[in-house]
Amino acid sequence: MFLLFMAVWLILNGRATVEIILFGLVISAALFYFMCRYMGYNSRKELLLFRLFPLFIRYLWVLVQEIVKANVCVLRLILSPRLQPEPAFLYFDTDFKTGAARMLLANSITLTPGTITVSVEGDHFFVHCLDRELAEGMEESVFVELLKQMEAVGERWS
Fold it and tell me: What SS3 string covers 12-77?
């Protein structure tokens, strides 16, 4: 983080003289100290972010794939005169340990067309689906598995 502060300092200054570099070192060190002392920052959290990055990229890729699949399904429901949507409410429980995992799952469900997270209370999810087909397997979805993997990595590095 210290190096990031220093790099931003140099980029914003546009040139690198001895005075600018020395002043940047002092400012960056002060900011880094402030973050460590008063904001609970430590280098283990930064390493955890690097460890989670590949899983997060995979999660985003799966999210995009699921959004495309759901778009096709919703489009088929809209354009087909024979298919009648059967709206459904779905209740399911998860065993996530962090609020961040619950938040990511709730937002991923809402971002996927045809589904919306109505309520999250602890580990209890309440989801409305445009059609029963969209509700199938939501409690054991790829999202849940990837988020559990992320939490496992987080537990090992915390």
Answer: HHCCCCHHHHHHHHHHHHHHHHHHHHHCCCCHHHHHHHHHHHHHHHHHHHHHHHHHHHHHHHHHHH
pTM of the full structure: 0.71
Long-range contacts from 79-84, C-beta under 8 angstroms, 24+ separation = none
Please tell me the number of Cα atoms within 13 Å of 112 on its side-chain side.
29
Instruction: Looking at the structure, tell me whether residues 95 and 140 fall in a common domain.
Output: yes
N-terminal to C-terminal alpha carbon distance within the chain: 18
Q: How many domains does the chain have?
A: 2
Q: Give the range among 59-73, 105-119, 141-155 with minimum mean pLDDT.
A: 141-155
